[in-house]
Protein backbone atom coordinates (compact mmCIF):
# COMPACT_ATOMS: atom_id res chain seq x y z
CA UNK A 1 0.00 0.00 0.00
CA UNK A 2 1.15 3.56 -0.69
CA UNK A 3 -0.78 4.87 2.30
CA UNK A 4 1.21 6.84 4.85
CA UNK A 5 -0.98 5.53 7.68
CA UNK A 6 -0.16 2.04 8.84
CA UNK A 7 -1.43 -0.68 11.12
CA UNK A 8 1.52 -1.98 13.10
CA UNK A 9 0.47 -4.90 15.22
CA UNK A 10 -2.09 -7.63 15.46
CA UNK A 11 -1.94 -9.91 18.47
CA UNK A 12 1.59 -9.04 19.44
CA UNK A 13 3.32 -8.99 16.06
CA UNK A 14 4.38 -5.75 14.46
CA UNK A 15 3.97 -5.93 10.69
CA UNK A 16 5.35 -3.06 8.65
CA UNK A 17 3.67 -2.30 5.35
CA UNK A 18 5.34 -2.41 1.97
CA UNK A 19 6.95 1.02 2.08
CA UNK A 20 8.96 0.03 5.16
CA UNK A 21 11.87 -2.37 5.08
CA UNK A 22 10.08 -5.70 4.58
CA UNK A 23 12.46 -7.66 6.81
CA UNK A 24 11.87 -5.46 9.86
CA UNK A 25 9.51 -7.19 12.29
CA UNK A 26 9.46 -7.25 16.04
CA UNK A 27 7.48 -9.13 18.64
CA UNK A 28 5.81 -6.63 20.95
CA UNK A 29 3.08 -7.44 23.48
CA UNK A 30 -0.31 -5.78 23.35
CA UNK A 31 0.07 -2.93 20.87
CA UNK A 32 -2.03 -1.70 17.99
CA UNK A 33 -5.05 -3.92 18.11
CA UNK A 34 -7.62 -2.97 15.50
CA UNK A 35 -11.32 -3.25 16.20
CA UNK A 36 -12.46 -4.49 19.58
CA UNK A 37 -15.70 -4.58 21.49
CA UNK A 38 -17.99 -1.83 22.60
CA UNK A 39 -20.79 0.10 20.99
CA UNK A 40 -21.08 0.20 17.21
CA UNK A 41 -23.31 3.29 17.27
CA UNK A 42 -22.10 5.96 14.91
CA UNK A 43 -20.79 9.01 16.81
CA UNK A 44 -22.03 12.50 16.04
CA UNK A 45 -18.90 14.14 17.46
CA UNK A 46 -15.38 13.17 18.49
CA UNK A 47 -13.02 14.98 20.83
CA UNK A 48 -9.35 14.49 19.86
CA UNK A 49 -6.57 15.73 22.14
CA UNK A 50 -3.24 16.45 20.42
CA UNK A 51 -0.31 15.73 22.75
CA UNK A 52 3.23 14.72 21.88
CA UNK A 53 6.93 15.25 22.09
CA UNK A 54 8.49 18.72 22.53
CA UNK A 55 8.53 20.78 19.31
CA UNK A 56 6.54 18.13 17.43
CA UNK A 57 4.13 20.76 16.08
CA UNK A 58 0.83 19.86 17.74
CA UNK A 59 -0.47 23.45 17.58
CA UNK A 60 0.49 23.75 13.91
CA UNK A 61 -1.20 20.43 13.15
CA UNK A 62 -4.47 21.54 14.73
CA UNK A 63 -4.32 24.91 12.95
CA UNK A 64 -3.66 23.27 9.59
CA UNK A 65 -6.56 20.86 10.07
CA UNK A 66 -8.97 23.61 11.13
CA UNK A 67 -7.94 26.37 8.70
CA UNK A 68 -6.39 24.35 5.86
CA UNK A 69 -3.34 26.59 6.03
CA UNK A 70 -0.11 26.69 8.00
CA UNK A 71 -0.25 29.19 10.90
CA UNK A 72 1.87 32.29 10.32
CA UNK A 73 1.36 34.13 13.62
CA UNK A 74 1.55 33.36 17.32
CA UNK A 75 -2.11 34.29 17.58
CA UNK A 76 -3.03 31.62 15.06
CA UNK A 77 -0.92 29.04 16.84
CA UNK A 78 -2.34 29.86 20.25
CA UNK A 79 -5.90 29.51 18.96
CA UNK A 80 -5.30 25.75 18.99
CA UNK A 81 -5.01 25.84 22.79
CA UNK A 82 -8.80 26.08 22.87
CA UNK A 83 -11.21 23.51 21.46
CA UNK A 84 -11.67 23.98 17.71
CA UNK A 85 -14.36 22.31 15.63
CA UNK A 86 -14.32 20.87 12.12
CA UNK A 87 -17.46 19.65 10.42
CA UNK A 88 -16.53 16.38 8.71
CA UNK A 89 -19.12 15.92 5.98
CA UNK A 90 -17.84 12.53 4.83
CA UNK A 91 -18.08 11.02 8.31
CA UNK A 92 -21.12 13.17 9.18
CA UNK A 93 -19.72 14.27 12.52
CA UNK A 94 -18.14 17.22 14.33
CA UNK A 95 -14.45 16.74 15.07
CA UNK A 96 -13.28 18.76 18.08
CA UNK A 97 -9.51 19.35 18.36
CA UNK A 98 -7.25 20.85 21.00
CA UNK A 99 -3.44 21.01 21.17
CA UNK A 100 -1.81 20.40 24.55
CA UNK A 101 1.66 19.60 23.20
CA UNK A 102 4.22 18.25 25.65
CA UNK A 103 2.83 20.11 28.69
CA UNK A 104 2.03 17.39 31.20
CA UNK A 105 -0.11 19.77 33.25
CA UNK A 106 -2.43 20.16 30.29
CA UNK A 107 -2.39 16.41 29.74
CA UNK A 108 -3.91 15.93 33.18
CA UNK A 109 -6.57 18.51 32.39
CA UNK A 110 -7.60 17.31 28.94
CA UNK A 111 -6.68 13.64 28.44
CA UNK A 112 -9.55 12.37 30.65
CA UNK A 113 -11.99 13.86 28.12
CA UNK A 114 -10.19 12.49 25.05
CA UNK A 115 -12.11 10.18 22.77
CA UNK A 116 -9.01 9.93 20.57
CA UNK A 117 -5.42 10.62 21.64
CA UNK A 118 -3.31 12.10 18.84
CA UNK A 119 0.38 11.84 19.74
CA UNK A 120 2.77 13.88 17.60
CA UNK A 121 6.47 13.22 17.03
CA UNK A 122 8.98 15.20 14.95
CA UNK A 123 10.14 12.66 12.37
CA UNK A 124 12.78 15.06 11.01
CA UNK A 125 14.90 14.53 14.13
CA UNK A 126 16.91 11.45 15.06
CA UNK A 127 14.58 9.55 17.39
CA UNK A 128 15.42 9.33 21.10
CA UNK A 129 14.00 5.96 22.07
CA UNK A 130 14.16 6.53 25.83
CA UNK A 131 12.49 9.94 25.73
CA UNK A 132 9.84 8.75 23.27
CA UNK A 133 9.05 5.68 25.36
CA UNK A 134 8.81 7.68 28.59
CA UNK A 135 6.58 10.37 27.13
CA UNK A 136 4.25 8.02 25.27
CA UNK A 137 3.90 5.72 28.29
CA UNK A 138 3.08 8.69 30.49
CA UNK A 139 0.40 9.92 28.09
CA UNK A 140 -1.23 6.50 28.07
CA UNK A 141 -1.03 5.72 31.77
CA UNK A 142 -0.43 8.71 34.03
CA UNK A 143 -2.93 11.43 33.13
CA UNK A 144 -6.36 9.85 33.17
CA UNK A 145 -6.69 8.78 29.53
CA UNK A 146 -9.77 6.49 29.45
CA UNK A 147 -8.99 2.83 28.99
CA UNK A 148 -9.24 1.71 25.39
CA UNK A 149 -9.06 5.22 23.92
CA UNK A 150 -7.86 4.94 20.29
CA UNK A 151 -4.43 6.43 19.58
CA UNK A 152 -3.25 8.05 16.35
CA UNK A 153 0.48 8.78 16.17
CA UNK A 154 1.39 11.57 13.75
CA UNK A 155 4.99 11.64 12.58
CA UNK A 156 5.12 15.31 11.60
CA UNK A 157 7.53 17.36 9.47
CA UNK A 158 7.96 14.86 6.68
CA UNK A 159 8.67 17.82 4.38
CA UNK A 160 12.06 18.28 6.08
CA UNK A 161 13.54 14.83 5.49
CA UNK A 162 13.98 12.28 2.72
CA UNK A 163 11.23 9.68 2.36
CA UNK A 164 13.62 6.76 2.91
CA UNK A 165 14.64 8.24 6.24
CA UNK A 166 10.99 8.81 7.13
CA UNK A 167 10.24 5.15 6.44
CA UNK A 168 13.17 3.93 8.53
CA UNK A 169 12.32 6.19 11.45
CA UNK A 170 8.67 5.25 11.23
CA UNK A 171 9.55 1.57 11.56
CA UNK A 172 11.89 2.27 14.48
CA UNK A 173 9.46 4.51 16.34
CA UNK A 174 6.56 2.09 15.85
CA UNK A 175 8.64 -0.59 17.58
CA UNK A 176 9.52 1.78 20.42
CA UNK A 177 5.91 2.86 20.91
CA UNK A 178 4.71 -0.72 20.82
CA UNK A 179 7.20 -1.87 23.42
CA UNK A 180 6.01 0.68 25.98
CA UNK A 181 2.28 0.24 25.51
CA UNK A 182 0.86 -1.70 28.41
CA UNK A 183 -2.72 -2.07 27.14
CA UNK A 184 -4.37 -3.29 23.98
CA UNK A 185 -5.49 -0.25 22.00
CA UNK A 186 -6.54 0.65 18.51
CA UNK A 187 -3.57 2.58 17.12
CA UNK A 188 -2.43 3.96 13.79
CA UNK A 189 0.81 5.66 12.81
CA UNK A 190 0.67 8.31 10.06
CA UNK A 191 3.37 10.37 8.38
CA UNK A 192 2.21 13.96 7.81
CA UNK A 193 3.37 17.54 7.36
CA UNK A 194 1.64 20.48 9.03
CA UNK A 195 3.70 22.79 6.82
CA UNK A 196 2.68 21.35 3.45
CA UNK A 197 -0.55 19.66 4.53
CA UNK A 198 0.61 16.34 3.08
CA UNK A 199 -1.50 13.37 4.20
CA UNK A 200 -3.35 15.36 6.87
CA UNK A 201 -6.76 14.73 5.35
CA UNK A 202 -6.15 10.99 5.51
CA UNK A 203 -4.96 11.39 9.10
CA UNK A 204 -8.17 13.26 9.92
CA UNK A 205 -10.18 10.40 8.48
CA UNK A 206 -8.26 7.97 10.67
CA UNK A 207 -8.89 10.16 13.73
CA UNK A 208 -12.61 10.03 12.87
CA UNK A 209 -12.42 6.23 12.78
CA UNK A 210 -13.03 5.90 9.06
CA UNK A 211 -12.27 2.22 8.47
CA UNK A 212 -12.09 2.73 4.70
CA UNK A 213 -8.52 3.99 5.17
CA UNK A 214 -7.35 0.91 7.09
> Total helix count?
6
* Derived structural class: alpha/beta
Largest sheet: 7 strands, mixed
What is the succession of H and E elements?
EEEEEHHEEHEHEHEH
pLDDT average, as an integer?
82
Give the overall shape, derived from the CA principal axes: globular
How far apart, in Å, are the first and last alpha carbons? 10 Å
- Percentage of residues assigned to helices: 25-40%
Count of extended strands: 10
What integer value in Å does the Rg equal?
16 Å
The quaternary structure here is single chain
Spatial order of strands in the largest sheet: 1-10-9-8-5-7-6
Strand % is 15-25%
Unreliable stretches (pLDDT < 50, length at least 5) are: 8-39
Would you write up a description of this structure?
Helices cover 28% and strands 23% of the residues. The chain has 214 residues and is α/β, with parallel strands linked by helices. Helix 4 packs across helix 5.
Compact description:
The chain has helices at 58-67, 74-78, 104-110, 129-141, 163-179, 200-207, and strands at residues 5-6, 9-10, 13-15, 25-27, 45-52, 84-88, 93-101, 116-122, 151-156, 187-191. The protein is an alpha/beta fold and 214 residues long.
Amino acid sequence: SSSSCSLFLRWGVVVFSSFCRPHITKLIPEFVIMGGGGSTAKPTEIHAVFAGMPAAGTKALVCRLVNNSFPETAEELNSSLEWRKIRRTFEELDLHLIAVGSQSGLWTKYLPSAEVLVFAVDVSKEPDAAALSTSFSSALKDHGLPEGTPVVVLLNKTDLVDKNIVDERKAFMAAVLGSCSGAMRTCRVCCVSAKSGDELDEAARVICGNTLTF
